[in-house]
Amino acid sequence: MLNSLNLSTNVPYLTKLNVARCTGLLTLDLSHCTRLRELDAEQSRLNSIVFPKDSVIEKLYLPRTLTQLELVN
Q1: CB of 34 within 8 A of CB of 52?
Q2: Against a cut of 0.90, is the pTM above it?
Q3: E strands along the chain, which residues?
Q4: pLDDT, tens digit, for every residue of 20-73?
Q5: Paired strand residues for 49
Q6: 19 C-beta neighbours (distance < 10 Å), count
Q7: CA atoms within 13 A of residue 2's CA, in its CB half-sphere
Q8: pLDDT band per the 50, 70, 90 thresholds, residue 16
Q9: C-alpha distances in angstroms, 48 versus 13, 14, 58?
């Protein structure tokens, strides 16, 4: 079971992330993933996602448990 995911400055070229059905993951900090275009988090238990400033997100698949979403462009 995935409980934590560290996406630090070591992943600047990540464009797609799939954490669907990762029920142990509650928060996700994507603030360093400046090239992320697609996130699939359906059926996860995420309640908080932090996106990078000036994000280039094109597709989002979000869970029903999400309580706050903020995209700054």
Answers
A1: yes
A2: no
A3: 16-18, 27-29, 38-40, 48-50, 59-61
A4: 999 999 999 998 999 999 999 999 999 989 898 888 999 999 999 888 777 776
A5: 28
A6: 19
A7: 16
A8: very high
A9: 22, 20, 19
